Amino acid sequence: MIxxxxxxxxxxxxxxxYSIEQKLNxxxxxxxxxxxxxxxxxxxxxxxxxxxxxxxVRMISKSTIIQSMDLNIIKDYLKSLIEDSxxxxxxxxxxxxxxxxxxxxxxxxxxxxQYKSIIIxxxxxxxxxxxxxxxxxEDIPIITISHQIKVNDEIxxxxxxxxxxxxxxxxxxxxQFKNLSFAWIIDSNGKIVSHPNKSISIDQSYNNILQYExxxxxxxxxxxxxxxxxxxxxxxxxxxxxxNTSGWKLIISIENRNAFTELTSVMNYVDYAxxxxxxxxxxxxxxxANSISEPILRLRHVFERAEKGDLNVxxxxxxxxxxxxxxxxxxxxxxxxxxxTYIDPVTQIGNYRSYLSESNFIIQSNKNDTYYVVVISIDxxxxxxxxxxxxxxxxxxxxxxxxxxxxxxEDEIVARYFGDEMILLLKENDLEVLRERISVLLKECQRPFxxxxxxxxxxxxxxxxxxxxxxxxxxxxxxxxIAKLKAKKMGGxxxxxxxxxxxxxxxxxxxxxxxLYHAIDRNELYLVYQPIFDLKSMKISGFEAxxxxxxxxxNSHRIDSIIKIAENSGQMxxxxxxxxxxxxxxxxxxNETFPDLSIALNVSMVQFNDSYFIKNVEEILKYTKINxxxxxxxxxxxxxxxxxxxxxxxxxxxKDLGIxxxxxxxxxxYSSLAYLSQFPIDHIKIDRNFIRKMTExxxxxxxxxxxxxxxxSLHLEVIAEGVESLEEMNxxxxxxxxxxxxYLISKPKRMKDLEIVS
Length: 758
Ligand code: C2E
Ligand code: CA
Ligand code: CA
Prior knowledge:
Elements: H1 2-61, H2 64-67, H3 71-83, E1 89-94, E2 98-101, E3 105-108, H4 113-120, E4 125-127, E5 142-151, E6 154-164, H5 166-174, E7 181-186, E8 192-194, H6 206-209, E9 210-211, E10 222-229, E11 234-241, E12 249-255, H7 256-259, H8 261-308, H9 322-342, H10 352-365, E13 371-378, H11 381-406, E14 413-418, E15 421-427, H12 431-446, E16 449-451, E17 454-456, E18 460-466, H13 473-489, E19 494-497, H14 500-517, E20 525-534, E21 539-549, H15 559-568, H16 572-593, E22 598-603, H17 605-609, H18 613-624, E23 631-636, H19 637-641, H20 644-656, E24 660-666, H21 673-676, E25 683-686, H22 688-694, H23 698-713, E26 717-720, H24 726-734, E27 739-741
Parallel strand pairs: 18-19, 21-22, 22-23, 23-24, 24-25, 25-26, 26-27
Antiparallel strand pairs: 1-2, 1-6, 2-3, 4-5, 5-6, 7-8, 7-12, 9-10, 10-11, 11-12, 13-15, 13-18, 14-15, 16-17, 20-21, 20-27
Helix pairs in contact: 1-5, 1-8, 8-9, 16-18, 22-23
The structure holds ligand C2E and calcium ion (2 copies).
């Protein structure tokens, strides 16, 4: 592009230069014409001098003394004439060439040029070419001017006047302009007649003093030509024929560079001007081309980046032309695309899709940096949702996203993964710095947020996976999700790096999941029962059914973690049905002997949310024909609080079926008792953690006391879980807790192994 501009400029420059030079050359011709005018006029001057002499000679030849042809009187006459004229000498000759000169000598001129021309050829007059006098030795050449003597129309002799060429020297010497030129005269043979350089004599011809290529340059009456002088200077010669001579030429020689001084300076001026304009033109063209091409290149770069997935690029809008406008509309378009495709409407940050495209782009553009994919999930987000409803949850996510954004550096992004999960791409080459940053992030989240006038603290679970260049970003996301799950499992508020250990855990979970599928068919599941003891009657009032898995390898695994796996792999509804059926059969058998004893069973959230759940319950009740009042469902506080409206409905239907409802793990959730009062529940089960700490911490004791008081005020029965000591039992009794459950009474056992005293 640039080189094209330069080439065009140079062509234009030389084109202009050529046409200007053509114009200037025309001016040169004008100048030469002026020189020709000068040579013409000078040649005429020389001619006038000669004609003057001719007229003089003519007058003499026509005088009566000469026409008398009487030499005696002619001698004196001629002698007297030359005394005060510029005629050096005169010669009088008769028709036979017998002549007399004013030097007083008789000579024969019958073989001389002028005799032939005048007597034989009958010319009226002739001027000889210059020559050196054969009679005198002198520097100055002479010329003879001869005229016929006619008597009665008959040529009877001739008169010859000799003049030196000095008058011509005078004329040529006067032709010197600016001291840079000189004039000279040559005769018809090309011999020098007059030359300012006295060393150049008439013996020399013009071609002795100039170097000229080609034949005789003096071909025309007047003209000009260039030659090199003896000093090799380039000269211009302008010549004109001197009238009334036999072709003499008057020549003005002038050095070429002086001949056209003005023109040369004009030419130089034009050259410089053109050259400067060329430079300016090229510079201007370059600047202009740059001012256009540079924004175009930038715009193209922006387009390319956008195409590759970097949606954070921005085209330059500052350019004040179509390119700037293109930039504006591009930015608009990109924004639209971003909004429609890549912006999460809740948090206003990117969504998963934008994360994929942007992170790929960023990683590709910073190949030497180490990147980490971080999945962050808010612990117990459902609790937050149930606390203030959907809008409150959304507002929390928005604030959460804003907070994360403040922690990001250049080339780092955050996007909403799904639900309460955010996904980050962090660039950190120093692992220690990364750990520090994550721990700052955890701490920042724990600082109180004010959302819709409510103070909340967030606890987050972080999964971090180093992005390996050979992996896809999806693989890194998968790894970091696994790490996040681990963090969740550890109770949250922790960041876990993905590593081999996690993989083993996942493998284990997958194995358990597979085995669990066959648990019912292989008859590996069974229930154990833990008595619930009434503190008033000091008797067992019922049992809680707890699931066990008799598996050759996994029987020692905690049942709650097995249940988690069952929930996550969608097996919980099926297992839950089995538990319900089994417990109901057991209850039926139990009630045959002990009609007042109840059995409580745990219903997980996943089960509860299953759309067939209520229907299943109805069927089992119909099928087993149990005393419905002795069946109790334990629902954890957090699952009851999740999706309150829907749950409330289901709970009421269960209640209508005659089933008792317990809130399990009470105190671990965030719900207030007052809030729970609208639930159709019968019991609360205080989580065993409070019971355990109750004897050590007075604040926990206070908590237990408050929970019992509040439950009483709502006419709810209180059951304390995990009672292991008599001390605990006594405290609970004094606090008027209704029932206790725990190792103090009995560990969970098979029904057949329990000694029931009722
Ligand atoms: P949970 O409903 O809170 O059950 C009470 C847990 O406390 C039982 O653990 C029981 O063995 C334990 N426990 C009872 N007394 C004491 C005590 O004095 N000290 C201590 N340290 N622990 C005591 P388990 O059987 O391991 O069950 C754990 C959890 O698994 C249950 O907690 C429940 O959430 C879940 N689970 C068990 N069986 C089922 C089931 O059939 N369905 C569902 N959905 N969940 C079940
Ligand atoms: Ca329970
Ligand atoms: Ca419990």
